[in-house]
Amino acid sequence: MLKIIFLLTFIVNLPIIIFFKKIIKLIGVYDKVDNIRKFHKTDIALFGGILIFINLIFLIIFDLVLDLNLFNESTSTREYFSFCFGITLFFFLGFYDDKFNLSANKKLFLNFLIIL
Fold it and tell me: Pseudo-torsion of CA 89, 44, 28, 12, nearest 10°?
């Protein structure tokens, strides 16, 4: 069973690894140098959250389709949907913040709404 998960994860991640630079240019989310809080020399691609999100969603889909019971045997489809929906909202809020730089108060308020 574990071999199937590793194989499917490899298949999902291989195109991402091969086309990494093209995906980064397409998305266009970079941590820009400001010489106040950030001291790196060049702009850094913010891609880690996207990669984790994609893998988590595919893992949940594989669990549902292949009936792997990775999380809990009594987990209902409604619980899976609620979890995926919440994770997706948090992801897009973080992505929007990376792209357009939300204030801390707005992020806190929106995170609170998502939790509710």
Answer: -60
